[in-house]
Amino acid sequence: MNEKEKAVAIYHVVRKNEGFEKSANILFTLIKDAQDKCPNEKRVIYLDIEGHKNKQGGYDHDMFELQKDFILGFLMDYISEVSMPLGRFKNNKKQINDIPEKLNIIPAPDNP
After folding, report:
1. Which of 64, 68, 69, 89 is a Cys-bridge partner for 73, taking CB atoms 3.0 to 4.6 Å apart?
2. pLDDT tens sequence across 26-71
3. 68 in helix, strand or coil?
4. Residue 94 CB: number of other CB atoms within 10 A?
5. Confidence at residue 92, expressed as pLDDT on a 0 to 100 scale
6. Residues 5, 95: contact at Cβ < 8 Å?
């Protein structure tokens, strides 16, 4: 992002006791609040994660899913950029400012 461009910084730390659903709802609410308080400004998420590591040293399933599927797969449409443990990513499309009223998380069916 260009130094002169204005953006709303959204920062969240996922705590050790915070799972996917809670984290996703917090991030969604932060984005919605940013749109309400600073309409149509570019939004940038800065995300840190405490703990949530697996035996191999990577992130556990919830935090990998939060970053890969939820942020990159869903929230990216509503932000301009994200900086998180998986990397820094820019939205190459125009940020959508018409944010849904609420988040509806549908759990994936368990694998047999």
Report:
1. 69
2. 999 999 999 999 999 999 999 999 989 888 988 899 999 999 999 9
3. helix
4. 8
5. 94
6. no
Task: Please report, as a single letter, which amino acid is at residue 17.
Answer: N
Q: What is the pTM of this model?
A: 0.88
DSSP 8-state secondary structure symbol assigned to residue 72: I
Amino acid at 38: C
Q: Can you list the alpha helix ranges (DSSP code H) found in the chain?
A: 20-37, 61-65
Predicted confidence band of residue 108 (pLDDT cuts 50, 70, 90): low
CA torsion angle 27 81 39 8 (round to 10): 80
Report angle CA 12, 82, 97 to the nearest 5 degrees: 95
Strand pairing class (42-49; 87-90): unpaired
**For residue 90, which phi and psi values (nearest 5 degrees)?**
-110, 145
Q: Structure tokens of 5?
A: 């461009």
